[in-house]
Amino acid sequence: MCPSWKLPRTKSPICRTDGGWLPVLAIYCLAVCCLAVLAPLAAGQALAQDMGSRFRIGVVTAGRDDARSEAEPFRDELEYRLGLPADLFLMDTLGELTDALIAGHVQYGRLSATAYAAARKACACVEPLAAPRDGDGADGFHAILMTKAGEVPSLEALAGKRLAIGPARSTAAFRVPLAGLAASGRDPRQFFSGLVPVSGPEEGLAALYDGLAEAALGWSTLLGEADTGYSSGTLLQAYDRMRLDVGRLTVVWQSPRIPFAVHVVRSDVAPELKDRLRQMLSALQDEAPGAYFAIEPDFGGGFVPVLPEDFSAVMLPLEPQWQAMLKDIADQQAAAPAPLPEDGGEGDLPPP
């Protein structure tokens, strides 16, 4: 609703209020105000006509019954900022949301970095808008390769040694580092004397200290205090849970940064609408924190803009030659029994 003002009585010929005329200046001000309010709505209506009247947002429920109500503040804010109706479409899994974006059933969604890479590889029909930062200011993480400090000082010194690797589905403990090493001329199948399968990064560290491998894979923001394992990742988990002295480990290789997540939009969405989305996301935490935390409850640092090249680390494993290599390693991994420490137990990290 346009506001109204009550002007003081005056005999000004421009703004006469002593008779039966409506104040000319007030009418002018009201007109300007109404235009300011209605112009975005008119633009939104024009965009809505171009897009089939409504903007479709895909949301992953992950089995949560209250997913719709949780995401509603974000939908409401997006609808207000864009000036056109917006609807939520609930998906059970990230795979379903990725497929819906590729097929054009929804126009906007929040994906993992690897899901974005898969969508881009499938159709080149989605564009990244923004990535969330954590409360420490990190907007992503690195896959890292770790060794015992002082024993293997560099990546080249690992030639002919054993590497503990995670499950084939793991981004940081399998796909990204193995493809990255291969792309740099170090095919893991030849460079290392053995690839030791483990169930995850912490088990990889246990294998390292149990003498089953000379190197292990994990992830880290590599931001913050190195002595306490940085702000997040495998090293911090080891420090927090086992009080591991992370100074006894050396990171000898790291991948390019991998965004924690990414908000994407279909490439066929109107350019003006994409610009509005970018502007909205960049200011969302400051201007509408309820809407921000409705869609990003785990990352409290706001959004940063991202470009396709920011996802090079997760795009690399999708290249045909590295896909074939990763499948070969995964097949060998599936056929190999899971290793146990020499004492037959479950393995422990060393005392601090």
What does this protein look like?
Residues 330-352 are annotated as: Disordered. Keywords: Membrane, Transmembrane, Transmembrane helix. This is Phosphate-import protein phnD. The chain crosses the membrane at residues 21-43. This protein is of the alpha/beta class and 352 residues long. It folds into 2 domains: 53-136 and 260-305, D-Maltodextrin-Binding Protein, domain 2; 140-256 and 316-335, D-Maltodextrin-Binding Protein, domain 2 (3-Layer(aba) Sandwich), CATH 3.40.190.10. The chain has 12 helices and 12 strands. It has helices at residues 24-50, 67-82, 94-103, 113-123, 171-183, 188-191, 201-209, 234-242, 271-287, 289-295, 312-315, 320-335; strands spanning 55-60, 86-91, 108-111, 126-132, 140-148, 162-165, 194-197, 215-220, 249-254, 258-259, 262-266, 303-305. The strands form 2 sheets. Strands 2-1-3-11-4-12 form a 6-stranded mixed sheet, with helices on both faces. Strands 5, 6, 7, 8, 9 and 10 form a 6-stranded mixed sheet that branches. Strand 1 (55-60), helix 2 and strand 2 (86-91) form a beta-alpha-beta unit. It is globular and about 60 Å long. The N and C termini lie far apart (65 Å). The model is unreliable at 1-51 and 340-352 (pLDDT under 50).
In a nutshell, what does this entry contain?
This protein has 352 residues and is an alpha/beta fold. It has helices spanning 24-50, 67-82, 94-103, 113-123, 171-183, 188-191, 201-209, 234-242, 271-287, 289-295, 312-315, 320-335; strands at 55-60, 86-91, 108-111, 126-132, 140-148, 162-165, 194-197, 215-220, 249-254, 258-259, 262-266, 303-305.
